[in-house]
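CORE FACILITY INTAKE
Project code: CF-77B
Contact: R.S. (postdoc)
Sample description: multi-component assembly, two entities in total
Requested service: structural model of the whole complex
Turnaround: standard
Below are the sequence entries exactly as provided by the requester. Do not edit them.
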Amino acid sequence: MAAILLLGGWQAMALSGLLFRDVVPPLGALAAGLWNVIADPTFWANALITGGELLAAVLIGGMLGVATGLALGASHVLSAAFERWFTWLGPTPKIILFPVLILFCGVGPASKVAMGAVSCFFPLVLSTAAAVRGVDPVLLRVARSFRARPWQTVLKVYLPATVAPLLNGVRLGFGVALIGVLLAETKLSNQGVGFAVMQAYARFDMPRMYGLLIVVVGFAAAVNVALGHAARRAVGATSKKET
Amino acid sequence: MRRIAPLFGLLAICLLIVLLQFAIGAGIVDEYTVPRPTAIAAALPRLLAEEGILTRFLTTVAETFAAGAAATLVGTGLGAALYRWPLMRRSFEPWVAVLAAAPLVLAYPLFLVLFGRSSSTVVVIAFASALPPVVLQTVAGFSAVRPVLLAVGRSFGLGRAAEFRRVLLPAALPSVFTGLRLALMFGLINVVGVEFLINLGGLGALINDLSERYDLPGTWAAIGFVVLVSVSLFTVLDGGERWLQRRR
């Protein structure tokens, strides 16, 4: 219902001639643009590159973030000493680090991975630390009474008990990593989806640009929904186990 | 131990900076990627005198507040409308959630076409990125108002408008403020980001300028300045939010 309303409004705007036809193309042109993007093998080559960068970014930034978050969450002293620095740096704009990351990692894909990893790192540190503090102390006491080693406590208590908030952290981290990677590609690159968007802009190929944006937004929304769903299922699983 | 821990953290970071200084001096860390901390500090007066960092700072702040204020006003209004008409909420809230998760800032070339390479582009992108989270936050805030309060209002025979003004708005004020905080946060991130990307206007463009001139101490100093600005903004907003929640 809402979708029909929105699409109808868009079409009316496109046909009214109030805005430039090139900027707000009619639905037919949009669909054609979207189809051209999907049917184009170079788009998939670009998508593969961006996807690889994104995956590497989420893995590197995510693992470092979870490790840091575990340390902060498990130790009162470390948390009191350092957690405020992460809270402060968390919401700062990360893209300004890009020129420095280019110096460290070169102009190739590595600097985009670094950009995404830095973006992804902070939300995961904070959500992991919060999740670890939310673990039921009884579980920890059980682990201690079984004389679990630190790594056993991490694997058998902390990780299973924090799956749901961790998945939510990954959801947030994935979103900002995607933005980081794509923006870095629009700034300086010769491949990837961000580069393809800039190419469409340079050629003033608006339907193609919309097509690319629709694909990216659709992908982001799909991953977001999937991770959110997984997090909710994990919540259901743990609460069932406890009762 | 826990009381002095923050001091310990600060000391550790200072120690790290001093170590870095010596590591660069000894040639362990390359001076041409990471300049000496003293050189970065020495670049700050130059940024003040030659690069007009203060005017750029004011540009960025003005753009952030324009986008943040607009997103708060429109977002709170839309959120209230979605709360008021459940049918609209059911049909549009999922779409707003999709937009909130979408990398809207990637559409900046599109906005460049629409608004030209101007300050208004920066503000509009920041506004568009900040709007969906504010709407979601507002709807959640209104929905979390205790039903008892609404029942009391109804028993006093309040009409729709009076109910909104006397019951809903005061009860949801803290979450409206959270919306404002979100709006300014998203606003600042996107303003600085877009300034950097299209090399126009305030602090983001300054960093781009300095790095393109390969002025590394200047780049690092400017990055430090931006971090300082955003940290102080968020600290003030956080304090305001806590104050409001305590007053409840």
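Facility notes:
- Chain B touches chain A through 50 residues (CB under 8 Å).
- Residues 33 and 50 of chain B are 23 Å apart (CA to CA).
Invoice: internal transfer
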